[in-house]
Amino acid sequence: MRLSAVGAAVSKAVTVAEITKRRLAGLHQCTRIGLSEPGGSSAGCRQPIISITLSLAPLASDQPGYQPPLSAEELVVGRAAEGGDGEMKARAGRKRVGS
Predict the structure, then answer these.
(1) pTM of the model
(2) What are the distances in angstroms from CA 39 to CA 23, 33, 36, 45?
(3) In whole angstroms, what is the distance from residue 23 CA to residue 69 CA?
(4) Which of 14, 43, 67, 70 is buried most, with the most CB atoms less than 10 Å from its CB?
(5) Residue 64 CB contacts under 8 Å (≥ 6 apart), including other chains
(6) Sequence-separated contacts (24+) of 42-48 with Cβ below 8 Å
(7) What is the pLDDT of residues 62-75, one digit of tens each?
(8) Are 3 and 16 in contact (CB under 8 A)?
(9) Taking Cα atoms as reference points, which of 97, 24, 18 lies closest to residue 52?
């Protein structure tokens, strides 16, 4: 599965990826970030872009932005990982690779 987003939608793509990873065991993740090329309706304005690949098959772990599957303790069932206001609880002690 590949999630891609530009501008204000970047945070939504990250949220979808995190929820998906917590609910499906064994997902590898590789994230690429950057800035869009100038042009379009907002000439000269570069916006953030993100591409998140989630895969049950192993991805290249030597790539910047790679994250291994979550441990069994980090997986959740139902809405247990969400706070009362719908916000994800922070993962304590989890080191992000390539960030």
Answers:
(1) 0.73
(2) 38, 18, 9, 7
(3) 11
(4) 67
(5) 97, 98
(6) 47/6, 47/7, 48/6, 48/7, 48/10
(7) 999 999 999 999 99
(8) yes
(9) 18
Residue corresponding to tokens 């916000």: 87
Please say if the pLDDT value at position 52 is more than 80: yes
User: Which amino acid appears at position 3 of this protein?
Assistant: L
DSSP character for 77? Answer: S
The pLDDT of residue 4 is above 80: yes
Q: Are 67 and 97 in contact (CB under 8 A)?
A: yes
Statement: residue 91 has pLDDT above 60: no
Average pLDDT, the chain: 83
Q: Is 61 left (phi over 0), alpha (psi -120 to 50) or beta?
A: alpha
CB 20 within 8 A of CB 74: no
Please state, in angstroms and rounded to a whole number, the distance separating the CA atoms of residues 38 and 61: 31
